[in-house]
Amino acid sequence: MSRRSAFVITCLAFGYAFLYVPIASMVVYSFNASQLVTVWDHAHSPTLKWFGALLHDQEILGAAWISLKVAVANATGSVILGTLAGYGLARFPRFRGRFAFTAMTTAPLVMPEVITGLSLLLLFVTLEQTIGWPAGRGIGTMIIGHMTFSMAYVTVVVQSRLATFDRSVEEAAMDLGARPVKVFFVITLPIIFPAVLAGWLLAFTLSWDDLVISSFTAGPGSNTLPMVVFSMVRLGVNPEINALATLTITAVTILAVGATWLTARARRHAASAAA
Amino acid sequence: MVTAIGRRAAGEPWNDPDARPYVELRRVTKKFGEFTAVDDVSLKIYEREVFCLLGASGCGKTTLLRMLGGFESPTAGRILIDGEDVTDVPPYERPVNMMFQSYALFPHMNVEQNVAFGLKQDRLPKAVIRERVAAMLEMVQLGEYAKRKVGQLSGGQRQRVALARALVKRPKVLLLDEPLGALDKKLRERTQFELIGLQDKLGVTFLVVTHDQEEAMTLASRIGVMDRGTIAQAGTPAEIYEFPNSRFVADFIGSVNLFEGRLVEDEPEFVRIDSAELGGTILVGHGISSAPEAALWAALRPEKITMSRGAPPQTDNVTRGIVQDVAYLGDLSIYVVRLATGKLVRVTRPNTARHAEPVERDGEVYLSWDAASPVVVTR
Amino acid sequence: MRRLLRRLEGTRVSSRGLVVALPYLWLIAFFVAPFLIVLKISFSHAALAIPPYKPLVVWTSRSVLEIRLDLRNYLAMFAHRLYGDAFLNSLKVAFLSTVFSLAIGYPMAYGIARAGARARNILLLLVVLPFWTSQLLRIYAWVGLFKANGLINETLISLGVIHQPLTLLFTPFAMYVGIVYSYLPYVILPLYANLEKLDWQLVEAAQDLGCRPWQAFYKVTLPLSRNGIVAASMLVFIPATGEFVIPTLLGGPNSLMMGRILWDEFFSNRDWPVASAIAIVMLLVLVPCMMAYLRIQSRGSDS
Fold first, then answer.
1. ipTM associated with this complex
2. Residue C141 is nearest to which of A22, A84, A109, comparing CB atoms?
3. Can you give the C-alpha Rg of chain C in angstroms?
4. How many CB pairs under 8 A join A and B?
5. 0.90 surpassed by pTM
6. Mind listing the pLDDT tens digit of every residue in chain C (303 residues)?
7. The domain spanning residue A165 has which CATH number?
8. Could you tell me the CA-to-CA distances from A109 to A153, A235, B208, C282 in Å, in that order?
9. C77-302: what CATH class?
10. CA proximity to C182, closest of C120, C110, C134, C238
11. How far is A258 from chain B (nearest CA, A)?
12. Domains (ranges, CATH) in chain B?
């Protein structure tokens, strides 16, 4: 094709290399036997010993367990709040305070985390002083903090799904005798379920990955996985972290490729049957 | 107001002042902000009718339909169905069902589940639901597609599912929003007759919204032509076509030649109109009621004009012109004839014989018509 | 009767309100209210207490309610060059990172939008994948690459390009690479969404009317993707201004970024009022950017 497309293809190749070389290097070095991580130990590599070490590291396992609890609770709560918010924004074009509401659901997407984290902590401290709740900080305050910014992502996902949703499908259900609440649960929710699920996974990931807001809102003894990883990484590279990265990347890849394959297959299926 | 004499068939409920309307709109208005979508519409529809709301997009016909379905609430006025005021009844409690323009089939359910949905909301026994769904699917010839997902159906099949789903609840009124709009031309023609057959068999009252005048003519017992939020004229297809009450209706349904003029003779049995546009007078074979000096128009359909190369025998309703353009459409041809006044007149002629008196471009022709053909409109 | 019906209609409106009420109240309680508290505490002063600041409102002995607004935190920011430098540096880093991200992300988004349907899905998936993997771990990967005995130095030495390892880690360069790398998906996705909707016949029409390809791009494609560019820029610029993790891990102890200063004031110095004042000053700059982003977003959903 033209020279322009040669330029674009070069950019794409460079861009994807930029995105993936660091990730690939982490994966490769996670099988390196050397403690120095980046110096390849030809004699003993590849090895799984860092994966073994990771799975016996009580600090990491404990932190992962806390992260998992926070992430699941956060994802579930965020999906409820975010779906309500996205539904409200998509379905009610006019209500009092809509602009403020839009602003509040958009701002957490871009707000620097240090600001959100600091403000949440100061809120919790003030609340504890004045009404005695929350008593100290821990998993609960972390979940509240994570939900506050995760729900914004869910809102965006649900709202954009509903924007392309044929409203007459909901009206048809109502016309056939279903009340609005039933319409939502029997018609709307099943149809937008993939988007809601994507929102759940997104909220889970955001929470699982969050360092800054967790650091502000966590209490003693509730260190999450990113907090532990951060303190380890600050001291330099660590082969166990490479192993952790490899596991994370594997899990994400399997999920993402699986989801893409499933949707592609469903689409092909529908297309071939309709033809 | 033009009065047609002796054209309306007697015994039709809309001509009977004592007949009870099945659906009634009383001075219904709907505003969206500053915009008035439906403007003070009153309308009576009778049982077993097929009433078509016909109009261009944005004329308010869909808003009117949606108010009947309960999806919009009127800014003013009342809506009655079978004598009951349903103005404030939500859609899920109204005895009407709607067939949506997009069909609005539930994509996560199969054909059977779609059709059964409404009956399940009524909490009917399972056996009853199964039986009624099966019967309805047979009726629309979709029996063997019961387990198909709706994404796997063709356009015509989807249309029939939507119809079955709305009809299976045995609504008092079925509202149809552009029911054939998404089908291609051939399928549309066939489906029109199927729709009429089904309506006849089930005895359901149909209220159809369409922008397609051919569709309205085929389906309707009566048509309501809508313009800017009001019903410009309501009547049987023949009434609307033969006796339009305004230039808008005359021009909207089919095509028409309009000659502006004024009344020079006003008798109970006939009137004569002098039209500068025509360069002569038009004899109209029926009486009209109009203020004597008001501007009015004689409307003349293209197919009601006879075109000949020799002078016709009559003395009234004759004029001459030059053929400016000819369009051959197969079954008929359209001629554009320029009169001496410069006025362009449209004439259609069926191509019944292959070489019957050919009329060519730039040829001089006589145009003549029967005194019964023109219709006088005053607005 | 009519009045009753009208009142019923009123409750229908409020049942809508119910849907929005829960997230609305949540955001007011946990997103908006906290900023007011930050504002309040920014006018306080650090103290050895729990919590570590002096109260603003004091009952004095003569039954007078005294409200003390302590401006020292703000004045300190003008007095010490550290804050001013960090502030300007943050804006500079965020701005340049935005420019670099766009320079890499725009051609990529363009390439993806113009690829065939099949290739497009795979290319998009490859952009989204890193987005789903831990940002912290991906930044950590660069530590391994940039180290003195890291992959980049080892490769360059073995190729004979250099003989002594370069100092890459803990440099501004490393920090820029880290920010661009982290935020690249945030740039590509909105740009792609915008370019994907673009009617390519417009470009063809421009060429048909005599534009060379680059002219058609400059005069048609680029102006039409303006909203995508602004949205993408805001998605990088605003969070990058307050970035903490990347400057800490790649920029090193001396990188002057507001996010780091805030963190250190809070966690190391335990000076909550100063940290709050920093947050307020940052917000004053960032809120207009957020409004611009919001306007683009809401306009985008209308069309």
1. 0.88
2. A22
3. 25
4. 77
5. no
6. 555 555 444 444 456 678 888 999 999 999 999 999 999 988 888 777 777 787 777 777 777 777 777 888 888 888 888 888 899 999 999 999 999 999 999 999 999 998 888 888 889 989 988 888 888 999 999 998 898 888 888 888 888 888 888 888 899 999 999 999 999 999 999 999 999 988 888 888 888 888 888 888 888 888 999 889 999 999 999 999 999 999 999 988 778 899 999 999 899 888 889 899 999 999 998 999 888 888 887 765 443
7. 1.10.3720.10
8. 7, 30, 47, 16
9. mainly alpha
10. C134
11. 21
12. 13-247 (3.40.50.300), 257-377 (2.40.50.140)
